[in-house]
Please model this.
Amino acid sequence: MKTLLYPKIIILFTLLLLLCCSFGCSQKGSAVAFQDVVIEDDEVPVDKMDMLLNDDFFDEEKVVEQIYYDPLEPMNRVFFEFNDKLYYWFLSPLNTAYTAILPWDIRFSIGNFVNNLAAPIRLVNNLLQLKIKDAGVEISRFLINSTLGVFGFGDPAMLDFGLAPREEDFGQTLGYWGVGEGVYLCVPIIGPSNVRDLVGFTADAYTHPMVYYIDELYVSAGYYAGSRVNLLSLNPEVYEDLKKYSLDPYVSMRQVYLEYRRKKIDDNPMQRRSDNEL
Model:
């Protein structure tokens, strides 16, 4: 079952990639440019801003232009609405019941276990980016947490040894080597993404040990769904706050996601040039 399923998934994502790239290239002029406010720490504070906000952390505003390439926006908005309804009709009630049953400490330990099990993804991608020291940290974290941390439910590597996880995935690896992000995508169930990260998501699935030890699709799907619900239970207010304080939640989600991903890849100047050429 598993040997037949995953090639089909790869073919599906490849076809989607070709469709998005061909459609996006034919509509190059439909990229959307927004003016974002970036707060620079080394600028002199503006008196007017201080009077309005009474906050010394706000400095002079510098307006820069950020490009969000979204030629598939009509389709993406449909999928965004689908995911939104899925959240409020299913995930939110499920999260309420989940948090009522399990205390925060147990849910946090489950999050540690899920994070530890995904160590091979971080290890492989650190190696692919030639970050040998960070790869060594990931090996150390996995060994420490799998033993002293009781199969990863604890995180003594961070608490006792100060070894923070070196978060890398294949989408970041592609970006590190200069692959552009492509068009923005809102994927049903998965959520915000882009062509590069969708390919990376598929590749990372092959690096996760669950693929090689569990044959049944429903078990793998259950593990993925359970890990997402547990993550939601630890950060329940993020999505609802985004909707509450946004004039257009779709635009805000797109901006937050793309800026977050760009900052995670921003240690490579070649990647910044690649994305700006889109």
